[in-house]
Design brief:
Two copies of one chain form a homodimer.
Chain A lengths: L2 H19 L6 H10 L8 H10 L6 H13 L3 E4 L7 E4 L7 E5 L5 E4 L6 H5 L4 E14 H24 L6
Parallel strand pairs in A: 3-5
Antiparallel strand pairs in A: 1-2, 3-4
The structure holds a DNA duplex.
Chain lengths: ~170, ~170
DNA sequence: ATGTATGCAAACCATTTGCAATGAC
DNA sequence: GTCATTGCAAATGGTTTGCATACAT
């Protein structure tokens, strides 16, 4: 069995234990959703998860999807992100190296960056709080948008100069 | 003039420059909103901002609030957070010590924590990306909810035991 | 004068909710 | 058999949008 299968088995086991402990039913939908999530590399949203299930003819309602995601969040098998848009992004929490996120505030692109995580000093300072997971969000401008911005700035400057010189600089 | 007034003057100046450069109009609404935001300590959301303006009889539409907040985000005077709920939180970016956020995934409480920020090593590793601001989100369970959770677990365990012993353990 | 910004109300859309039907236990 | 869970469709609510009006330039 390959690593991916092993991982799926492991998380299924954890999920089962969680469901048992919390007296929740072990429905096929729940396990199918978990399985699908752990087939996805990187971030996903509800729409893509829904579609990926429809694609293999597994019928689930969105309500069940949301319901199950919440369970998976509660038991720490899935992480939720809201990078700035209005749709939530998720990603599996297991077998997923911790990483920071570079979020372009202009185009919304999210780039992952692995690196040093929270220092021991920082973690030691956390009291009266049980840490489940953490992530650093770094907002800024990606290279593509820096370029676009630069172009716009030039245009604006040109406009301002024209305005100053002949007081008719008018362009979008 | 006290420090708060000085800060307000400083950000107003920056905002003005931004508006001028981008050929946006300097409307009283925009400056009033900036001023109100810089009167708020800590996080705020649209509703509370709206109310704080209504309270002093400054009439603004929500549309203008959203419009202006976007400008303030663009010029880096305001930060936006989405901690997990469905409403966005904001906070001023100037005169606001960098801090991490401890977010309780159960009750939604957000606690701020100042501490070591990104290491130089980490920042050096960021390429082709202009960092505006960053924040570490630490999800977990706050002390209050740990307690509640513990109570619930005990209840569940009791239920499970009863079930095993007499197979009629039934409680919420 | 010109066209950007405002205010209002309607539209949007991800997410949540209510309820009847299903199926795990 | 019981009641948690599902699926559907309607409701919710923060945010966005369209358009007529107001006002900064």
């Amino acid at each position: 069995m390959d690593a991916a299968q092993k991982l799926k088995q492991q998380v299924k086991k954890e999920f089962t234990e969680y469901l048992t402990l919390h007296k929740c039913r072990k429905t096929p939908e729940r396990f199918a959703i978990l399985d699908h999530i752990y087939s996805i590399r990187g971030h996903f949203d509800m729409e893509s998860l829904y579609n990926s299930m429809v694609d293999v003819n597994f019928r689930v309602s969105r309500a069940t999807l949301y319901n199950t995601i919440q369970l998976l969040l509660d038991c720490g098998l899935v992480m939720k992100h809201q990078f700035g848009g209005n749709i939530s992004k998720y990603e599996r929490a297991y077998g997923n190296e911790n990483h920071d996120h570079l979020i372009c505030t202009l185009c919304g692109e999210v780039r992952e960056m692995t690196g040093d995580q929270l220092t021991t000093v920082q973690l030691k300072n956390i009291r009266k709080f049980k840490v489940s997971y953490y992530s650093t969000y770094i907002y800024g401008t990606c290279s593509k948008c820096i370029h676009v911005k630069r172009m716009e700035m030039k245009k604006l400057e040109r406009g301002n100069q024209t305005k100053q010189n002949k007081s008719n600089g008018k362009q979008t």
